[in-house]
Amino acid sequence: MQFVHINGIVIHYDIRRAEGDRPVVVFINSLGTDSRIWHHVAPKLAEDYTILTYDKRGHGLSGLGNPPYSIDDHAADLAGLLDHLELSGVVVCGLSVGGLIAQGLYASRPDLVKGLVLSNTAHKIGTAEMWAARIATVEEKGIGNILDAIMERWFTAPFRRPENAAYQAYCNMLVRQPVLGYSGTCAAIRDADFTEVAKRIAVPALCVVGREDGSTPPDVVKSLADLIPGARFEIIDGAAHIPCVETPAAHAALIRGFIEQLNEE
């Protein structure tokens, strides 16, 4: 585990450097999770690429800061981390709100980004009313109050079996995130609209979604891909909102194929 002060808060990160001049892949976790969601994807890529994972503010082992946040806050944290590590020209893979952060990073620091893998995300996610209701609920009653509803969006029915220890662990991950970090990031999602940014993305982009995603369904992710010039769109069978957990081999294969195509261009 590695830690650094960025923008006045502690950011927890982990970097595994590949030998030689290899592409760098940066993974951004979703709302209510931490960097451990990439635990099964990162090793499938680590021999060939430098891998950077981190906990965004208000999640995991990173600091809380001063919620509520904006996507600009999250993007500035990532830009600061990349500057600290002297990395640029990276492939950014963001899941859900991580995809919004990836778009925000591109908008503010395009020099840092070589390619975008936008997984289970959109240019705008949900409505202001929806996010306001969720913020009120978790701040009044706790994250556990929305656990079952969120899990139905995150994972397919076969994964949500009570005897599946991994499913129980991801339930634990969600409810153990700081309430203010969670609600603060809900506010960031509420206020984010990257419709115009997406139209101006000038690096290669891959938009990926689980076929059974209940948070950002395939048609929503396809609408993002349609905005980005030349973007690819792929659906992963047997997965919902977090394919890096349910179908890590398929998720990693798409990322690898995208990076190798980048190297050929």
TrEMBL record:
<dbReference type="InterPro" id="IPR050266">
    <property type="entry name" value="AB_hydrolase_sf"/>
</dbReference>
<feature type="domain" description="AB hydrolase-1">
    <location>
        <begin position="25"/>
        <end position="252"/>
    </location>
</feature>
<dbReference type="InterPro" id="IPR026968">
    <property type="entry name" value="PcaD/CatD"/>
</dbReference>
<keyword id="KW-0378">Hydrolase</keyword>
<protein>
    <submittedName>
        <fullName>3-oxoadipate enol-lactonase</fullName>
        <ecNumber>3.1.1.24</ecNumber>
    </submittedName>
</protein>
<dbReference type="Pfam" id="PF12697">
    <property type="entry name" value="Abhydrolase_6"/>
</dbReference>
<dbReference type="GO" id="GO:0047570">
    <property type="term" value="F:3-oxoadipate enol-lactonase activity"/>
</dbReference>
<dbReference type="InterPro" id="IPR029058">
    <property type="entry name" value="AB_hydrolase_fold"/>
</dbReference>
<dbReference type="InterPro" id="IPR000073">
    <property type="entry name" value="AB_hydrolase_1"/>
</dbReference>
